[in-house]
Write a structure and sequence with these properties.
Strand content: under 5%
Order of helices and strands: HHEHHHHHHHHHEHH
Number of domains: 1
Structural class: mainly alpha
Distance between the termini: 38 Å
Mean pLDDT: 85
Length: 328
């Protein structure tokens, strides 16, 4: 029996998906200065063993650095390992950008329930925890962007914004109150609790294909590069680049980061109109995630890709602001 289609509408205030340039009104259930919350059943057993996560995180880094040094000063690296590195990196970048971010956090397009699960599993294989945790905290980031209560603001220091926040106990628990639209799916709840399953499957596949070298390059090196590519949007994209729109945060557009993250570097565009599946507003703003989504739309896998207002595409920021307010 086929799975039903997913219709994320109607939108709710908690989705933070209105596309407004101004910060959304504060929800009464959310304290701006969050206190640490103990993980619940929605987070799985690993969330209660903080030392395991830390040891695993830094072990993967050490393995990646060791592999790079071995390749430079040792016998090099095989073609198979490099192919695994490229495939696992770019596929999982798409899982984070088009899946966790543009679909689960912002609902910028629609898809079937089956492909929704594919996106969730691909995102989970990036070793950035489950889809409900990731998207829920990202919605909080937009609500309080660069202000008190933000999950990862550079105003709390570059290191904190880049990766320090992931060790902050305030963000251990999945904020289910921010992601009720997707928390109603039992398969997503299961994956959120067992987000390590796609990770283990990927690591096993890399080992089967390329042996130990395949594991190191296809998983450890790839994951380390993927982590810091993702983190760069939280840190560098709020510090380095240009600002087309006067948003109330410090978001910036950066071509280099956009190329590295399949379009996420057009961050000022995104913070101005977060409801768009397209983050590169101009023709020359390369957005590989959007191009892949357009291809999937042509095949009928996804549909109803949401676009920014015409005024924003034309660069008329005053008219764009008016258009956004009329839509809200």
């Amino acid at each position: 029996m086929s799975l039903p289609l997913v219709n994320p509408e109607p939108e709710t205030e908690s989705s933070l998906d209105s596309g407004r340039a101004a910060r959304a009104p504060r929800a009464p259930k959310l304290a701006r200065r969050a206190e640490a919350r103990a993980p619940t059943g929605a987070d799985g057993a690993l969330a209660r063993t903080d030392y395991v996560s830390r040891v695993t995180y830094w072990t993967i880094h050490v393995a990646a650095i060791g592999a790079l040094l071995w390749a430079i000063f040792g016998p090099g690296v095989s073609t198979t390992a490099l192919v695994l590195l490229g495939v696992t990196f770019w596929a999982r970048v798409f899982g984070i950008t088009a899946g966790y971010h543009r679909y689960f956090a912002h609902k910028t397009y629609k898809t079937s329930r089956a492909f929704q699960l594919v996106l969730a599993a691909l995102g989970a294989s990036a070793t950035q925890k489950g889809p409900l945790w990731w998207a829920g905290l990202h919605r909080r980031h937009h609500r309080y962007s660069d202000g008190p209560g933000d999950v990862h603001s550079p105003k709390d220091g570059f290191y904190y914004a880049h990766q320090g926040w992931i060790f902050d106990p305030r963000w251990n628990a999945t904020p289910l109150e921010l992601i009720p639209d997707f928390a109603r799916y039992p398969e997503l709840q299961w994956l959120n609790r067992h987000h390590y399953v796609p990770v283990a499957a990927l690591a096993a596949a890399c080992t089967l294909i390329g042996g130990f070298e395949g594991l190191i390059w296809g998983y450890c090196v790839s994951t380390t590069l993927l982590w810091h590519s993702t983190y760069s949007i939280n840190s560098l994209a709020h510090l380095w680049g240009t600002r087309r729109y006067e948003t109330p945060d410090t978001s910036r557009n950066n071509l280099l980061l956009a190329l590295l993250t399949m379009g996420e570097g057009w961050h000022n565009n995104h913070h101005y109109y977060m409801a768009s599946a397209r983050q590169g507003f101009r023709w020359w703003e390369i957005d590989l995630s959007y191009y892949v989504l357009r291809g999937l739309a042509a095949l009928g896998v996804v549909w109803d890709l949401r676009e920014p207002p015409a005024a924003a595409l034309a660069g008329n920021t005053r008219a764009a602001a008016a258009a956004v307010e009329r839509r809200a």
